[in-house]
Design brief:
The complex is a heterodimer of chains A (339) and B (511). Chain A is mainly α and 339 residues long. Chain A has 14 helices and two strands, in the order αααααααββααααααα. Chain A has helices at residues 9-17, 32-48, 55-80, 88-104, 109-132, 138-157, 167-174, 182-200, 202-212, 214-219, 224-250, 261-271, 283-302, 307-338; strands at residues 176-177, 180-181. A two-stranded antiparallel ribbon of chain A has the order 1-2. Helices cover 32% and strands 24% of the residues of chain B. In chain B, α4 crosses α5. Chain B has 511 residues and is α/β, with parallel strands linked by helices. A six-stranded mixed beta sheet of chain B has the order 6-9-10-3-11-12, with helices on both faces. In chain B, strands 18-21-22-15-23-24 form a six-stranded mixed beta sheet, sandwiched between helices. Classes of the chains: A mainly alpha (339), B alpha/beta (511). At the A-B interface, α1, α9, α10 and α14 of A face α10 and β20 of B.
Chain lengths: 339, 511
């Protein structure tokens, strides 16, 4: 309450009441639910297994989660504008495949990586143009691209695994920096940059504005089309990056890598508090969401739970997360009014 | 504290006694009582947030009261569901129309109880009953088979009324029915209500922000303020000023500000040969610094389209827009904002506010470069800009971080106005700036508009509400059929003259 109104409080309260449904503001701890779930999982796993807190397991967990988290962060940009990017799993496979092909043909590591990133960026750009210029629904545009990108990588690799790859490349995702897995640091850097862009830059504000109401944003002078193209480019770029990391981690270009990952990415963002109708969600939430799903899979392995049950659990988790988001919106409102 | 100012001996058709209602910790109605009689129009007056909507919802059964009595024909009716309230004869015409746009008029009229045999609709009976219902509201020329989406807004409103009356409503509530109507259509509607009252003995509860309508149609007036009953009295006992005073609780000297020593400067906006999409007429207009120019005309005359075209929101067939001497590249709101234009749209919810964003973010969105360096936003500078603009506006709010959707209509409008103050706009295009805004906030907005003009801004105001148009503008341009039919300096602009021009044929200025 830095500023108070010039009128007495009760009158203002009545004015507020006129609005039946209030929305939770972006800054009001939409991730608190995610953090709670995370803590419960960690506690449960610590109590029920002996292996959870071992270094090998945590190391393994971070390496598994990092790729999903990077995809979720990219997906978040698109979801914040009210869109969706179904092509990220295929882009992951395509970029990884392109990088592996170039490496296998003797191209230097930096060039192969840049080519992989460029591939992701170009696919993202096409997605963005389809959505912004041709006004295709994002679901359709990126669903089409899901097929195209996967087809391309299968075609170019002849549907065969590309191996071996140079050690200088494989070390990227398998090495350690300061005693922690390099993938951990890569994820931290990606998340920090993304959080800075969304939280502190003009572009970030425009992303939220477009997601809240694209036409209102346009009439306020926001370059809506450029913003849309940019978010799909970012999603494509990060998917490409995730593809390169996956290839490096596995030491091989696998043409089917990333199949179905788009749903993991979306689930991560949503479990982390992002709203599919746009304008709500933060980077920290998307990372938490990916972490929760990773923990679920990891814990399932440790406890030797049938993976089919795990799928069911993840599905239920998504439904619960969105339901609690609705509930949270309401309770927080009452809380705010009473204050 | 029961008030029975009416001398009618008849028993009231509807009685509400000592109604209270709270939502969570906030009490929205405190000990409110009212009576409605057959063949009488009771007007419910009050600012936004006074509790009018809640009271209506209690009458229609959409909301259950916390305590108090609700009697129809002297019988306590308990807490009726909406369907029970309808069966008791309570009908309501909402400001947002409740008709299904892609369904025919006749099906809309009888939706929920279509005449049918074993699930198959009886077309002939449907047609006949629909015709009867339409006739009752004087809509004899509407084809009942037409889709509602093909009807003009005013006709839809009439169909809506026919639907409510068709359900045998004895008690009809009109919630801001004329908001979307032109002056002429509003007159029609008022005539219809008068007829329902005198010929059919319907009890009418009429809610509006337009005070002139209250005095034209109301037999008695009930005033609510902050959820409390302020007074109920025959409308003859109120004057324009005393009514406003009891609604607002403070004195508003003059609704429309007196602007001393008007001085017009250089031409800030010049529109040359603008032809809207598909229109044969060229529109020319100029706005000088310090001048408020009104765009008048009937609904559908092309006023909204004109300001949107100037702002670059829609594509045009021809024409040049010059802002402060510099031609504006067409079709780009972003360029228009840069050049110094600002547009306040008529549809605040869909085309104005960014509902999920905070007040601060809504204010700064159109001029982010002023509060950022190298693309990085400074929250501190945003806040200082916000705190520098907002005190001028008499805005009721808690914190700059609350979402804009938590404000009432009038306060949202003030935030949107400050969005354009933040860009240091040279010309503001205001499309129905006080639509759905209560009287107190209206006066504030007029004052702001007057102040902005006095500081050398050029302002274009679109308004369907003639007293407003004539009250605040220096010059009025009247449109019809997407063309200009005339231009009046304010001294010559009378309501009659504006209405006459609003239905004449546009002149081809550019031969």
């Amino acid at each position: 309450m830095a500023t108070t109104s010039s009128t007495p409080q009760p009158e203002a309260a009545v004015t507020q009441q006129a609005v039946e449904e209030q929305r939770t503001p972006i800054s009001l701890g939409r991730e608190s639910g995610g953090i709670l779930v995370l803590l419960i999982f960690v506690a449960a796993l610590m109590l029920s297994t002996n292996d959870f807190l071992t270094l090998t397991n945590l190391d393994n967990l971070v390496r598994q989660v990092a790729v999903f988290a990077i995809l979720s962060v990219g997906q978040l940009f698109v979801i914040l504008t009210g869109g969706i990017d179904l092509s990220v799993g295929s882009v992951l496979g395509l970029s990884g495949g392109v990088t592996a092909l170039l490496l296998a043909s003797g191209t230097s590591v930096p060039v192969a990586i840049l080519a992989g990133l460029a591939t992701g960026l170009v696919v993202g750009l096409i997605n963005g143009l389809l959505v912004a210029k041709l006004k295709l629904p994002p679901f359709i545009a990126t669903l089409g691209m899901l097929g195209v990108a996967r087809g391309l990588v299968l075609l170019w690799t002849d549907a065969k695994t590309i191996a071996p790859l140079p050690d200088a490349f494989n070390i990227i995702a398998n090495g350690n920096v300061l005693g922690l897995p390099s993938l951990f640091w890569i994820l931290v850097i990606v998340a920090l940059i993304a959080a800075f862009i969304l939280g502190r830059t003009i572009f970030g504000r425009y992303v939220y504005a477009v997601g809240s109401n694209a036409e209102s944003a346009r009439l306020s002078g926001v370059p809506v089309n450029s913003v849309l193209i940019a978010v799909y480019c970012i999603s494509g770029l990060l998917a490409g990056f995730a593809g390169i990391l996956t290839t490096s981690r596995l030491g091989a270009g696998i043409p089917t890598a990333g199949t179905g990952y788009e749903l993991q990415a979306i689930a991560g963002a949503v479990i982390g508090g992002a709203s599919l109708s746009g304008a709500k969600g933060r980077v920290i939430g998307a990372v938490l969401g990916a972490l929760i799903m990773g923990l679920l899979a990891n814990g399932g392995n440790l406890l030797a739970i049938d993976p089919f049950y795990l799928q069911i659990a993840i599905g239920l988790l998504i439904i619960l997360a969105v339901y609690f988001d609705h509930l949270q919106g309401r309770t927080l409102n009452l809380f705010r009014r009473a204050a | 504290m029961t008030i029975s100012a009416s001398t009618t001996a008849a028993t009231p058709l509807v009685q509400l006694k000592h109604i209270t209602k709270s939502f969570g910790p906030v009490q929205v109605l405190k000990d409110v009582s009212l009576e409605m009689f057959r063949g009488e129009v009771l007007c419910l007056a009050g600012e936004n947030g006074a509790g009018k909507s809640t009271l209506i919802k209690i009458l229609t059964g959409a909301v259950a009261r916390d305590s108090g009595e609700y009697l129809i024909d002297g019988q306590e009716v308990g807490s009726p569901s909406p369907a029970q309230a309808r069966a008791l004869g309570v009908g309501v015409v909402y400001q947002e129309l409740s008709l299904l746009p892609d369904v025919s008029v006749e099906e809309n009229l009888l939706m929920g109880h279509l005449p049918a045999a074993r699930g198959v609709v009886k077309k002939r009976e449907l047609r006949a009953r629909a015709m009867q219902m339409l006739e009752r509201v004087g809509l004899t020329r509407v084809d009942p088979g037409m889709l509602v989406s093909d009807l003009p807004v005013a006709t839809r409103q009439m169909v809506e009324i026919a639907k409510v009356l068709g359900a045998n409503a004895r008690i009809v509530i009109f919630d801001e029915p004329t908001t979307a109507l032109s002056e002429e259509d509003a007159q029609h509607l008022l005539q219809l209500i008068k007829r329902l009252k005198t010929e059919e003995g319907v009890a009418v509860l009429y809610v509006t922000h337009r005070l002139e309508e209250i005095f034209e149609i109301g037999d008695r007036i009930t005033v609510l303020r902050d959820g409390q009953l302020i007074t109920t009295a025959p409308s003859g006992e109120f004057t324009h000023d005393t009514l406003i005073r009891s609604m607002v609780g403070r004195q508003i000297e003059a609704l429309y500000p007196k602007r001393e020593q008007k001085q017009f400067g250089r031409t800030l906006l010049s529109v040359q040969g603008l032809r809207l999409k598909g229109s044969p007429y060229a529109i020319n207009l100029e706005v000088r610094a310090g001048e408020i120019v009104g765009l008048g005309g009937l609904v559908g005359a092309g006023r909204t389209e004109t300001v949107r075209a100037i702002f670059g929101a829609d594509s045009i067939d021809a024409g040049k827009i010059i802002v402060d001497g510099k031609p504006l590249p067409p079709g780009s709101p972003a360029q228009a904002v840069k050049a110094g234009l600002g547009l306040l749209t008529e549809d605040r919810k869909e085309l104005g506010i960014l509902a999920d964003l905070s007040l601060r973010e809504n204010v700064t969105i159109a001029n982010m470069s002023a509060v950022s360096r190298l693309g990085v936003v400074s929250h501190k500078e945003e806040l200082s800009l916000f705190n520098q603009l907002v005190p001028r506006l008499r805005l009721k709010y808690h914190t700059s971080e609350q979402p804009i959707s938590s404000l009432s209509g009038g306060n949202q409008q003030k935030v949107l106005l400050s969005r354009w103050l933040a860009t240091n706009a040279k010309v503001l295009l205001l499309d129905e700036p006080t639509k759905g805004v209560d009287v107190g906030a209206k006066a504030d907005i007029y004052t702001i508009i007057g102040d902005l003009a006095a500081k050398g801004m050029g302002i274009v105001v679109v308004s369907s509400y003639l007293p407003e148009l004539l009250g605040i503008c220096d010059r009025v341009i009247i449109l019809h059929d997407f063309g200009v039919t005339g231009e009046l300096p304010i001294e010559q602009a009378t309501e009659e003259e504006v209405l006459r021009l609003a239905s004449s044929t546009p002149v081809a200025i550019n031969a």
